[in-house]
Amino acid sequence: MMTAQISGIVPQSPVADLQAQPVFVTGSGFLPGLSVSLAGAGGTTTLSGNSISLVSSSSFQLLAPLSTVGSYTVVAANPNEVGSNPFSFRAQSPRPPRITSIIPPTPSANTTVQVLQLTGVDLSDATSATLTPPGGTPVSVPFTVSTPALARVTVPLPSPGSYTITITTLGGPSNAFPFTVAAPPVPRITSISSSVPAANAALQIFSLNGSNFQVGMTVTLTDPNNQSIQATVGSVAPTSAQVRAILAAVGSYGIQASIPNAGPSNLFTFQVQAPPEIQSISPASPFSGSAAQSLQVAGTGFGAGLTVALTAPSSAPIPVVRNVTASTFDLDVTLPVGGAYQLRVTNPGGGVGNAFRFTVQASPSITSISPASPAADAAAQAVQVTGSGFGSSPTATLAGPSGPVAVQVSSVTATGLVLSAVLADPGPYTLGVANSGGGQPASFPFTVQPSPAITSIDPTTPRAKPTPTTIELNGSGFQDGLSLTVTNPRGSVIPITGNLIRSVTAIRIRFDVELDLPGSWTVQVNNPVGRSNVFPFTVQ
Questions:
Q1: Residue 62, beta-bridge partner list
Q2: Dihedral of CA 331/335/338/341: which sign?
Q3: CB 77 within 8 A of CB 65
């Protein structure tokens, strides 16, 4: 089988390049699937697959990594064959690069690194970039190459003066391109973030707005007495910078900015106002309620467009501010529960006021009554009312099915009171309780149920005897757990409870009683809530 032979390459003397480059290998006996051994100063590399293309019996294309200048030897081997003759060639040195200009042509000194754009020729395959500062030691700087004619370098240019930049490729170093770094422009202050800050003994942060600011900028700050105040600079951008300082006094302040290698800025003056202060509210101790109510807030230093922060024992809607003057404003606010509250005013310029604390009196609230559903009765009955926020002298109103009902209030505590009223009619009632000092009254609906009623007994005329007689009462509204009161002709009361009551339904009661005397007797049903009519009957 024929062995491959190499007779030459094209180009005969390629230029060294950091990127693999196409080289045509000529000769004879080349077969598809061949591999290539390439030996150079950096060692031996075996190439196959996508690195070899356009294979014919007399030539093929090789993507050859020729990254160093010097001699190389190439050997081709067909599949399952020994290698070809070794063919030697030389990778020549590329031309050295040349820098022709930079952009910007005259950069300004800056304490932060800058990016310069280099234009020239043969800038590809750059291996390093070197910056030489005025009277200084050359330093390597980061670089990127876009095209053979364009590269970018990231350089520190902290001081004005004469600099040079050099690019090195496989062809060697470029010319040392000289350029001048100008002194930075003087910074200028045009405004501060808070046009009228508020005096505060705590550290404040405000922003300077202007131009030509740099990292490393310092500021000089003077108070209304023309005394220097300590001020530090935080984050800096070309048109803004953060300043931290204590602006404790009210009056006129001055501030200047300075950057390295440039003169100080203009003197910018600004006013510091007194912070807003809440001194009182009216009413001084309002009542809680679910509806918004109006408070008048009095104090000093209030500015148009102020905002109010309300701190409450529970969540509350955001207050609405109206009618702002320098000394008063109206506040529409919902105070949902009683307890400790706090107001704080912030003026549009950032002045934060004092924390004004006040107490909201709880409005009365009814949670339950006992009995929960009283029975109608022609006699006055006591109802225990439970809730919260009851004052020492509350007033109560009661509306029933037939209109207002007279009530008396007693035994008042903050969480309860006793109500005495005649609940003569069954049906829906509404109880209202209001404190004497004001506030939203409490309202509580409940239902009065009908009283039990006896309509007949069986037997209608029982006979007297010394042993128990079973009596059946007919009527309505009877309830489990009831008892009976029986009165004999002598006026003695006989209670009927427990096992003496045989059965109970809503319309019928069966019970045992000893009817030992003839004459006029009575019986009355006592439900757990409510009593029936007194029903008379005769014992023979």
A1: 23, 52
A2: negative
A3: no
CA–CA gap between residue 25 and residue 36 (Å, rounded): 10
The total domain count for the chain is 6
Angle (CA) 505 509 512, round 5°: 145
Tell me the pLDDT tens digit for each residue of 41-82: 889 999 999 999 999 999 999 999 998 899 999 999 999 989
Query: Residue-wise over 13-36: b if at least 16 C-beta within 10 A, else e?
Result: ebbbbbeebebebbbebbbeebbb
pLDDT digits (tens, 9 = 90+) for 129-145: 999 999 889 999 999 99
3-state helix, strand, coil in the chain (%, to 5): 0, 55, 45
Per the CB < 8 A criterion, the answer to whether 283 and 297 are in contact is no
Cα four-point dihedral sign 505, 508, 514, 519: positive
**252: CATH:** 2.60.40.10
Using alpha carbons, select from 246, 201, 202, 203 the residue that is nearest to residue 227: 246
d(CA 4, CA 84): 5
Q: Counting beta carbons within 10 angstroms of the beta carbon of residue 397, is it exposed (0 to 12), middle (13 to 18) or buried (19 or more)?
A: middle
- The rounded distance, in Å, linking the Cα atoms of 438 and 442 is 11
Contacts of residue 492, Cβ cutoff 8 Å, sequence gap at least 6: none
Q: Letter for the amino acid at 124?
A: S
DSSP string, 384-439: EEEEE---SS-EEEEEETTEEE-EEEEEEETTEEEEEEE--S-EEEEEEEE-TT-S
Q: What is the dihedral of CA 336, 342, 347, 352, to 10 degrees?
A: -150
**Residue 22, Cα to own-chain centre: how many angstroms?**
60
Strand stretches in 230-335, DSSP E? 231-237, 240-245, 251-258, 268-272, 277-282, 293-300, 307-311, 320-322, 328-333
On whether both 118 and 134 belong to a single domain, the answer is yes
Domain that holds residue 192: 188-272
- pTM beyond cutoff 0.85: no
Domain boundary among 272, 288, 310: 272
